[in-house]
Design a protein that fits this description.
The protein is α+β, with helices and mostly antiparallel strands and 305 residues long. The chain has 8 helices and 17 strands. Strands 8, 9, 10, 11, 12, 13, 14, 15 and 16 form a 9-stranded mixed β-sheet that branches. Strands 1, 2, 3, 4, 5, 6, 7 and 17 form an 8-stranded antiparallel β-sheet that branches. Strand 1 and strand 2 form a beta hairpin.
Amino acid sequence: MERTEYIWFDGKFVRWEDAKIHVLTHTLHYGLGVFEGIRVYECEKNLSGIFCLSWHVQRLFESAKIVGIKIPFEEKELENAIVETVRINSVRAGYIRPIVFIGDGDMGLYAYTNPVHVAIAVWPWGTYLGEEGLKNGIRAKISSFQRHYVNSSMAKAKVCGYYVNSILAKKEAKELGYDEAILLDSNGFVSEGAGENIFVVKDSKVFTPPPKSILPGITRRVVMMFFKEFQIDCVERDITRDELYIADEAFLTGTAAEITPIREIDGRKIGNGDFKITRMIQQKYFNVVRGKDEKYINLISFVKF
């Protein structure tokens, strides 16, 4: 990770190396905190654009509400703080991480009287699954770990501790020689990647898992808007594991992963490797996030340096 100069911490900027917490910080021990991942892209006219900023901040607040955390700032305050964090660090393209966490105080499971802290960091960061994967597709493995299911946890919240499951799935896939894991839900249907949503193309139709056990991603939401614009059917329905193997195309979506094609799952080649629909969505996506598509310009919060 390439360090930047400043982190926004509870309403003021501190130097990167001074953004410290106590070893008894509650979230460090129990994982109850919420966060977001947001991208900023370099645009024309000496501007950078934060993609879907208000949607991400809204989801951050919704995640906090689900798990009963009261964020001590308003949504607009955090939006402005994110823009300023990008600007003050002169990050023209990179990744933004807002996090809300519970500080030290009571150390039991019930610590809702502890202070709530908010931090925002930003740093330059390239493609999560690699430039090669973005271009030629990745190799994925069905994980032995299941995605959190309804009422086992609050699956619609982006909670820090939930990602232990994703870490274990990713570790398993990497150690077996794959790039990414795909998790099934408790009923054996396809859920999502370790940190991404998944789409499947078959006979020029597109399918994606319904919003049950998945975290409904911001990029997923945008891609579904693209399919509507292109008049391509995109159906939310249960997808079986073997449907992945015989798909014409499959791809992952996420703020970090962007639009990444899958060329192989469990050693089985997916389609003929032309990624026709995936490429169309990919090109559309990168035009939109870089401010080159006027139809979606309202999704971008511009930063002037």
